Amino acid sequence: MTTPSLGVNLQTGTANVSAVTIGGLADLAGVQRGDRLLSLHGHLVATSADVAAALNGLTVGDLVQIQVARSGQVVSLESAIPAPPAPVASLGVRLKQGTLEVLRTEDGGVGEAAGLMPGDVILAINGQVVASAGDVREAVDKLVEGEVALIQVNRGGVVTSMQAAVLPSMMSVRQVQVQVTAASTPGAAAPGWYPNPTGDGSQAYWTGSRWQNAVAAQGSGVSGGYQYPQTSGLAVAALICAFLVPFILPIILGVAAKNDIRRSNGMKTGEGMATAGIVLGWIFTILILLWVVLVFVAIGSRRY
């Protein structure tokens, strides 16, 4: 089974998109020139080899999720893998700019087989009159393997007809690569670790709305798909202890929870609970101290 193509050109050694193939998977999903690929079908990608590995085993019709870095944001896109384009015939000629005059012919093309020569001016292909290079391309695209192509040219002021059979070797897949705009509405990407948009080889954590400042070095063990944030156990303990053990312990646990969350590179949440535990701990601590002071004052007043 042939591995499907994403339909992009990447800058050498990076995941930066330099061109997008019209009608390809990336084009249909909305990938744009200048995007940096981050994740493809649940696999982190940083090179063209990663892209090929992520698409291996997929087939036409499979839905593929693509995450890209675009203007400092992570954009989530998706599209079904399209059927590969049908091969079209190649005329195999180079035309003088702005005209239909043949400058040269290329080996193996329909033009060479038919006998086109430099200086010929193409007039019609299979009965379709042509007036521009676009008309020539449109007429050649209609040729099918095995048929005989009839070409009329102006050669030295004389209309000359020539023909050639369209052989399998003359058929190829044409891929036009241009910058494209988004073809689908991008959505917010799931939180997780992605290759750093700076391209320095590290991984950065995307919270769902922004990049965390902290990064993980390459090979740090965070590359195995998305890792979703978990609530800090210390934060939970701080909040519970604020009610069960209303003294200095919830304050200690709350401070420890905040430090734990800051060191987690975005992988732990619960700072609100930790703050609540600290505040409640101080409130209960102050109340207890006030109660103790009042008790001692009351005892002292009885002595007098």
**Would you identify the CATH H-level superfamily of the largest domain?**
PDZ domain
The total count of helices amounts to 7
Using the coordinates shown, work out and report the CATH topology of the largest domain.
Pdz3 Domain
Distance between the termini: 98 Å
Principal-axes geometry comes out as: rod-shaped
Assess the beta-strand content as a share of residues: 25-35%
Mean pLDDT: 82
Largest sheet: 5 strands, antiparallel
* Structural classification: alpha+beta
The sequence of SSEs as H and E is EEHEEHEEEEEHEEHEEEEEEEEEHHEH
In spatial order, strands of the major sheet run: 4-3-5-6-16
CATH level-1 class of the largest domain? Mainly Beta
Q: How much helix is in the residues?
A: 25-40%
Annotation, overall tally of beta strands: 21
Q: Low-confidence parts, pLDDT < 50 over ≥5 residues?
A: 179-185, 217-227
